[in-house]
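hiii, so i know i said id send this last week but things got crazy w the move. better late than never?? heres the sequnce for the chain we talked about at the cafe, plus the structure i predicted for it. fair warning i was half asleep when i ran it
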Amino acid sequence: MYLVYADEQGQVYDHPELYGLGRSGDLLIEILEEELIPLPEGATLVSLPNCHPVGMDPETGEMVRLTEYQAVGALMPQGFTRLMLPGYVKVDKNEKLPLFGYTAVVWHNGGFYVAAEQSDDPYKWNPLNFPEDEKERLVKSVLKQYPENRVFHHLSNCTLGYGCLTASNTFFNRWEAGLPVSYSCNAGCYGCISEQPEDSGFPAPQTRMNFKPTVDELVEVMLHHLKTPESIISFGQGCEGEPSTQAAIITQAMRRVRAQTKLGFVNINTNAGLTDHIKAIVDAGLDLMRISTISAIDEHYNAYYRPRAYTLENVAKSARYASEKGVYTSINYLVFPGVFDREEEMEAMIDFIRKNGIRLIQMRNLNIDPDSYLAMIPPAKGQVFGMKQALEIYRQELPDVVIGSYTHVPPLEFQERRRQTLNV
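okay and structure toks below
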């Protein structure tokens, strides 16, 4: 399990002697073979700017820093949960890494391996299933069909400019498709990928939408996509703010669409802080809800999300209401090795899931500069189990909760329960 590193030109090497190290929280530790899988399709190797790789001499156990090279990490496709960050030391502690989810990578058995495990079927989110020439053809076709719809034009940039797969599905007319609706937000997330303060130290990798769609524009996108029983249309994308701030137009659009078709599912990706707005959206016919969270501990949650006029208890109330109304409710869990696997974090989140009717945990690797994140949250108070053991504990404690990585079509019993609630 040898160290992988890069030179200034981006050429990647494997070290002939030093073992690769991983990072859990702020600790550099040895990677075990049971924590490794081959580099998945769709993963990308990247160098970490201004970060020196750190390896271990297998004979002495000494940690060795390669000061003439750059550390290397892997960016994982959806469906894979990282177990460790790369082992590195920053040249300048004040420098911040771009907002990506870096995973430890080593050279093992003649190939690249990563410290990760598969948490879901990655087929639908493999970038190889989104060929560029096909994307360009479909975008042109849809824009020709809906030349005045600003949402489709916005999504075309997300598809061709940013390579967003959810936006791309809107044009491929399959699986889960994105429908951004909001330019404003009721949170100031530290790691927001669509809006950052000028003094944040790192630019947002995406541009947030800057207009309010009309109900007609939303209806057009929804009817365009909801053509099969398994189609999913999702409010709440990385290129927007909090969708529930636009509850008025969402609820109108949902009712108009459901008067014309019962096919597919309507989902919202939300922080769920605006409980009254969420209740209105649920009552208008919502099928699925994915709540973004990073912790069920107030101090940690507030440090990252920086909520405006809502609390974690509002999030819990929204989740409970949706679950009681038959909505298939999940959490979009932003996970970070050395934090997710803390004893107190696990106890709080397992309790939150049990009390609020969560049926699915969508594991998402947190895209953030690790050092900045660790500096802003409370330190560990109890045992840190390691990611692999923590995931096993979740499976044991929550046997009826699915652990995956993205939105699922709910089981038939949930679909029937929801139809009964809506009197459909």
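btw The radius of gyration is 22 Å. thought thatd interest u
miss u guys!!
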